[in-house]
């Protein structure tokens, strides 16, 4: 398995980024692609290669700890890569850990694809097993490259990224008026939207 890839980001989209390493472009699916930006600066992305009969994909993270949590989530019956990415995209792993430790199913079912059965399975499988992952530093999960809010398409890109994560149109449409009140970068819009969705605010 690849531990990490270093290179320059040549493409950023709602679902993945492309990192060029020595002339080879690696398509890397990330929780929130917009924490990265196209730049000539070399970056490091920690990776996880996901292999199944019908798919081979490369997932990328800003830290080893974030990758470790992704892998733990994948071990829960009912959670696939897409569901794990949606949980990690919130940038607030401490909230997830707290919900699991307190057996707060109401919070966990707010994530796309997580129903009551899966929420109960998450609690059963992960309770008491995640503190070592997030205790290192919560900041590692929200680490990102600063991005200037210069594009008028930032909000549209953020909304598209939310759809990729699995949020329904009706859920997204409820928070759009709140998001429109601020001028933010795509990454910041995504972070704010996820917190609104998880906190049930509009």
From TrEMBL:
Q: Might you report a single GO cellular component term?
A: Holliday junction resolvase complex
Subcellular location per the Swiss-Prot or TrEMBL entry: Cytoplasm
Q: Which of UniProt's keywords are assigned here?
A: ATP-binding, Cytoplasm, DNA damage, DNA recombination, DNA repair, DNA-binding, Helicase, Hydrolase, Nucleotide-binding
InterPro entries referenced in this protein's UniProt entry, alphabetically? DNA_helicase_Holl-junc_RuvA_I, Hlx-hairpin-Hlx_DNA-bd_motif, NA-bd_OB-fold, RuvA, RuvA_2-like, RuvA_C, RuvA_C_sf
The organism's superkingdom is given as: Bacteria
- Indicate the segments forming the Helix-hairpin-helix DNA-binding motif class domain, all copies: 71-90, 106-125
Give the Gene Ontology MF terms in alphabetical order. ATP binding; four-way junction DNA binding; four-way junction helicase activity
- What does the record list as GO biological process? DNA recombination; DNA repair
One Pfam match, given by its short name, reads RuvA_C
Give the span(s) annotated as Domain III: 150-202
Record family assignment:
Belongs to the RuvA family.
Its subunit composition reads: Homotetramer. Forms an RuvA(8)-RuvB(12)-Holliday junction (HJ) complex. HJ DNA is sandwiched between 2 RuvA tetramers; dsDNA enters through RuvA and exits via RuvB. An RuvB hexamer assembles on each DNA strand where it exits the tetramer. Each RuvB hexamer is contacted by two RuvA subunits (via domain III) on 2 adjacent RuvB subunits; this complex drives branch migration. In the full resolvosome a probable DNA-RuvA(4)-RuvB(12)-RuvC(2) complex forms which resolves the HJ.
What note about domains is in the entry?
A: Has three domains with a flexible linker between the domains II and III and assumes an 'L' shape. Domain III is highly mobile and contacts RuvB.
Q: What does this protein do?
A: The RuvA-RuvB-RuvC complex processes Holliday junction (HJ) DNA during genetic recombination and DNA repair, while the RuvA-RuvB complex plays an important role in the rescue of blocked DNA replication forks via replication fork reversal (RFR). RuvA specifically binds to HJ cruciform DNA, conferring on it an open structure. The RuvB hexamer acts as an ATP-dependent pump, pulling dsDNA into and through the RuvAB complex. HJ branch migration allows RuvC to scan DNA until it finds its consensus sequence, where it cleaves and resolves the cruciform DNA.
Can you name this protein?
Answer: Holliday junction branch migration complex subunit RuvA
Classification from the root reads:
Bacteria, Bacillati, Bacillota, Bacilli, Bacillales
The protein's gene is named ruvA
